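re: that chain from earlier
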Amino acid sequence: MRGLIAKKLGMTGLFSEGGGELAGVTVLEAGPCFVTQVKTKDSDGYEAIQLGFGAIAAERVRKTLSQGARGHLGLLKSDEKHPTRKASADIPPVRYLREVRVDNAAQYAVGQKLMADVFAVGDVIEVEGISKGKGFAGVIKRHHFRGGPKTHGQSDRNRAPGSSGATTTPGRVMKGMRRAGRMGDETVTQPSLKVVMVDVERNLIAVRGSVPGAANGVVLLRDMKPSGKKK
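^ sequence. v structure.
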């Protein structure tokens, strides 16, 4: 398993190598990411690494990061509550932390830098991000309901949800019923995205198709998880 934290820059089009096909791609600023913690089976019961992304200027560290986050990254100075925790030169101040499961965490070290070349052209990955928040939405927009009849005097039923349940039995609306409510702003994983470009010098990765979230949103790139289906 491999992973990177990235920032979604936006969508554009890229021509294939032969120039005969134009594909819609999402461009991501992937890295540099720093390994901020290594978890092994002996210490934590499973193999994983924690990645940090989004450099913070030195003068903004105290305003941006909590004391717990500064202590976790080894950024507490001697004039704070924990004088034994010295500033770490291996890990720069980072804003975002994400955890990625790996097969062998022992091959990583705290402070190690991971760049866009973690992935290569042709890799099929999945991208996890926070979807765009759309506020309160009705059932037609949120669940793609058809709506009520538009004739025979039903002038106010065009976008109504219709019946929500039975009558006396059970006498309530069943849990899980699709209704109007808050839409979006949820963790979404987009699978099966093919990497079509890797630019190590500019830390850019382009994947075919769209990824969750708005521009400048933070996403997590990782290898496709096994489906568990028998072949």
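Residues 22 and 178 are 38 Å apart (CA to CA).
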